[in-house]
Write a structure and sequence with these properties.
mainly alpha
Length: 166
């Protein structure tokens, strides 16, 4: 027995909401990965360059205070390198991929919703999607505001649209 289209629409509208939430979350986390990787490289590279310049200045008989600048810059670069600058990046990448999986699963379930045999099946599918989404939200590190804003702009420009979705 086919489920009434109004009932299917109620469930698919909730699935579309999960799809949209997962799309924004996924894109925001991918933007955060790029930001964290860039910041991670800069926090090592910039002090290292500053230390090298300070060393050259001391070698060229500039004031010896430049040696202190070089030492501090070298310490910052070494500490950043030792602590690892890609921890946030790796965490953000895992979250982005998990949200992408939810987005794809939601798209699939939306397209199959009218083929569900009962309202209970639709309800179980929706609850499973919501549970998966909530589990990811509970376990992932919050994304900073700047990457989320960038993700919003990119999505509005159509970054998630490709041949198969038009």
């Amino acid at each position: 027995m086919a489920i009434e289209s109004e009932v299917v629409e109620v469930y698919t509208s909730q699935m579309r909401k999960i799809y949209e939430d997962a799309s924004y979350s996924s894109q925001a986390y991918f933007e955060a990965v790029k930001y964290a990787e860039m910041w991670g490289r800069a926090i090592v590279f910039v002090p290292a360059i500053l230390g090298a310049i300070a060393g050259i200045l001391v070698a060229l008989n500039y004031p010896k205070e430049w040696g202190s600048v070089g030492a501090v810059a070298g310490t910052v670069a070494a500490t950043a390198s030792f602590l690892g600058t890609n921890r946030n990046s790796a965490s953000f990448k895992v979250s982005a991929r998990e949200f992408t999986k939810i987005r794809h699963k939601a798209a699939l379930e939306i397209s199959l919703a009218s083929r569900q045999s009962t309202e209970i099946d639709l309800d179980n599918t929706l609850r499973s999607l919501r549970s998966s989404y909530d589990t990811i939200v509970e376990t992932c590190e919050p994304v900073p505001s700047r990457p989320f804003a960038k993700a919003q702009k990119r999505i509005q420009k159509g970054v998630l649209e490709y041949e198969g979705t038009k």
